[in-house]
Write a structure and sequence with these properties.
Elements (H helix, E strand, L loop, with lengths): L2 H15 L3 E3 L11 E3 L1 H20 L4 E4 L7 H6 L2 H4 L1 E6 L6 E3 H27 L5 H7 L1 H23 L2 H10 L16 E4 L3 E4 L7 E4 L5 H5 L2 H7 L6 E10 L14 E11 L4 H17 L8 E5 L9 E9 L2 E12 L1 H10 L5 E3 L4 E3 L2 E8 H12 E5 L5 E5 L10 E5 L6 H12 L5 E3 L5 H11 L3 E5 L1 H6 L1 E6 L5 E5 L3 H9 L5
Parallel strand pairs: 3-9, 19-20, 19-21
Antiparallel strand pairs: 1-2, 4-5, 4-6, 7-8, 9-10, 10-16, 11-12, 12-13, 13-16, 14-15, 17-18, 21-22, 22-23
Helix pairs in contact: 2-13, 5-7, 5-8, 7-8
The protein binds glycyl-adenosine-5'-phosphate.
Length: 509
């Protein structure tokens, strides 16, 4: 097991042990790629949502929120292209009976070649030290060049096969690259078939003529179909945005990596409607704005990278992914897409209703273009916890696991801890807790030694512990302990709320 895998396993175990995430219906052995958020997970998730909603809706006067239904008219998904094209190519191994995404098998093969290249580069960098010229090495080393050539040869066939849905070419590539099933080790594959990722169900009883409806695979369409409702009732002028947080459902073939790829998940999406011709400018704006949002949490810059799409979806004229360095490597956390007038145009065509904007400045009507920002709430959750999970060796030789969750997102903000369960300290602690609970989510704990209670709070990421001791009874001061530094200071009890509010605030100083 490599270091990343080991760390990932520990994070998953920690999430379960401390009430962040449980497998769904665990007493029935769980349900694949579906998870429940526990008492601390639900709080952290709400705080991430709140952080996103405030920065999108509250801090931008031209962005408003929406909460559309999960069920939508089935024609929505015809117009959006999901009925015909929201497919993944799947392949089965006849020996292990395991199912894979054909494109993922090929991408994994390419990733192995890339890993070989990176290993060569790292070895050479060590050997040559300060004089190492990585660019020159990559361009001239025969082994690196041979692997780059192999990757290029694969991509020349892989990219058009994916774009054009040529399933036979994907199968041929898998066979020629001698890709084996990771479980059975055999190369006994079925043909590649298309698999639509939407879940469907029936609405109404059979005698009424039940109709097929889908569980939405993205929240965006709820925004598009309400474009005119919001524009008219909110008297919105371009450019303006509509933001939404909600559940989405995809019947993922390969559901793995914990909450990274789930079958039921949540998205935080914003569609920004702009005048045609200005979409590239706004695309650049949102790319930078979204990176700023991530970095404002204090997560190191090197944990993120921008991946430009070389091949664009048919409806987009620009697209990037913001990738995060998860414990299993860099993977997409958020997509920013310039979607042109594809969606509004398609809904106009299929519904027969005009979805246009009358521009009072030019006296003309046109279909707005759209720049979309779309982030997976669960992936953001995973980014926050995987960055926060820290195993520390302390000066006294003991160890602690601390979740360095950004204080504004931490599930519990304050733990009130009377030093002892006697001499009136619990009563004093309760009094403080009862005042603070109106400002923050707090916990009160008076069982066990104070050191153990600190460790428990560290493990769930509580940024501040307030200790009540005998001096509190004399002068009404308390100690406030900061989670990461473990530094303690004495402050008047009546200042706790003010001090903590200031420290966890996102308000520009
Ligand atoms: N409306 C555009 C859209 O849905 P997407 O790239 O398919 O684009 C957007 O999804 C984001 O939703 C991704 O960046 C990812 O964070 C999240 N996401 C997508 N599929 C997911 C899944 N199966 N499990 C968890 N998050 C997912």
């Amino acid at each position: 097991m490599n270091k990343g895998e080991d760390r990932f396993k520990k994070i998953i175990a920690h999430c379960k042990e401390y009430g962040f995430i449980f497998p769904s219906s665990e007493i029935y052995d769980g349900l694949s790629a579906v998870y429940d958020y526990g008492q601390n997970g639900a709080e952290l998730k709400n705080n991430i949502k709140d952080y996103w909603w405030r920065s999108m809706v509250q801090y931008h006067e031209n962005i408003v929120g929406l909460d559309a239904a999960i069920f939508m008219h089935p024609t929505v998904w015809k117009a959006s292209g999901h009925v015909d094209a929201f497919n993944d190519p799947l392949i089965d191994n006849k020996d292990s009976k395991k199912r894979y995404r054909a494109d993922v098998l090929i991408e994994d093969h390419i990733a192995k070649l890339e890993e070989k290249i990176n290993k060569e580069v790292q070895k050479a960098a060590k050997r040559f030290g300060d004089t190492f010229d990585e660019k020159m090495f990559r361009e001239t080393n025969p082994r690196v060049q041979a692997n780059i050539q192999k990757i290029n040869d694969i991509n020349v066939r892989f990219v058009p096969a994916m774009e054009n849905g040529h399933l036979n070419d994907l199968k041929a590539l898998i066979e020629e690259l001698e890709i084996a099933c990771p479980v059975s080790g055999s190369r006994n594959w079925t043909d590649v078939r298309q698999f639509n990722l939407m879940f469907s169900t029936k609405m109404g009883s059979a005698s009424d003529g039940a109709s097929l409806v889908y569980l939405r695979p993205e929240t965006a369409q709820g925004i598009f179909v309400n474009y005119l409702n919001v524009q008219k009732t909110g008297r919105m002028k371009l450019p303006f945005g509509i933001a939404q947080i909600g559940k989405a459902f995809r019947n993922e073939i390969v559901a793995r990596q914990f909450i990274f790829r789930m079958r039921e998940f949540e998205q935080m999406e914003m569609q920004y409607f702009v005048k045609p011709g200005l979409e590239k400018e706004w695309f650049e704006y949102w790319k930078e704005e979204r990176m700023r949002w991530h970095l404002a949490l204090g997560i190191p810059k090197e944990m993120f990278r921008i991946h430009d799409h070389d091949k664009l979806a048919h409806y987009a004229n620009a697209a990037v992914d913001i990738e995060f360095d998860f414990p299993f490597g860099f993977k997409e956390i958020e997509g920013i897409h310039s979607r042109t007038d594809f969606d509004l145009g398609a809904h106009q065509k299929f519904s027969g209703k005009k979805l246009q904007y009358f521009d009072p400045d030019t006296n003309e009507s046109y279909t707005p273009y759209v720049v979309e920002t779309s982030i997976g709430l669960d992936r953001m959750f995973l980014a926050v916890i995987s960055c926060a999970f820290t195993e520390e060796k302390l000066e006294d030789g003991s160890e602690r696991v601390v979740m360095n969750i950004p204080p504004a997102l931490a599930p519990t903000k304050i733990a009130v801890l009377p030093l002892m369960k006697k001499d009136g300290l619990p009563e004093k602690g309760r009094e403080l807790f009862d005042r603070l609970k109106y400002d923050f989510l707090c916990q009160y704990e008076d069982k066990d030694a104070i050191g153990r209670r600190y460790r428990r709070q560290d493990a769930i990421g509580t940024p501040y512990c307030i200790t009540i001791d005998h001096q509190t009874l004399e002068d009404n001061t308390v100690t406030i302990r900061e989670r990461d530094s473990m530094q303690q200071e004495r402050i008047p009890a009546e200042n706790v709320s003010k001090v903590v509010s200031a420290r966890i605030s996102f308000k520009p100083k």
